[in-house]
Amino acid sequence: MFSLLRLSTALPTGLRVSRSSIIGLKPLQTVTSLNRTNLIKPTNYGLRYQSTQPIKKQMVIERELPDPLKEVRSNRYKFIAFVTLMGISSFLIFNYEKLNSPIVTTTLHFLRRSQTMKDVLGEKIDFASAFPWVRGQLNQVQGKVNIEFHVKGTKGEGKIKLRADREDRLSDFLIHEWCLIDDKDGKVYDLLEDDTVDFAV
Description:
This protein has 201 residues and is of the alpha+beta class. It contains six helices and six strands, in the order H-H-H-H-H-H-E-E-E-E-E-E.
């Protein structure tokens, strides 16, 4: 308190504080007034660094993960389908070549003229189905023929078997078997014994 009185007397006349006002101050009030005048509370400096954009919430999409082996399996299935298709196409092409070979067309021609065929199967001898299938080996280059196919007539159906070979390309085929197997009773008719036709391939 004494120091404050001395300070008030040392100040210029315009800045002097009365003794009564100094004596009336309490220590807590003095400290409080000093804190209010001299201490500056920090402002919200951190706000200048905050983003003004709205905070985006994290989105979670629930879906299955891609299968890394899906494309491999798909290619495998495509390859299997391709091989199967090529195999079927090859069989169809080979069968078409057999149907249009001179041996099959000649055999069918003599079957239509055979009296035995007419007696067993009737007239209009032809392949048994719209998509006939010739089974067996038919190789004219090597001279080996061992085929069978189904035919039909107005009376019934049957299976034709033809087996022949030759020594070389300049020789004629030697026929070992040419017969009709009736589908009704399984009876075998030897067409080589039919005198109405002179079969040769």
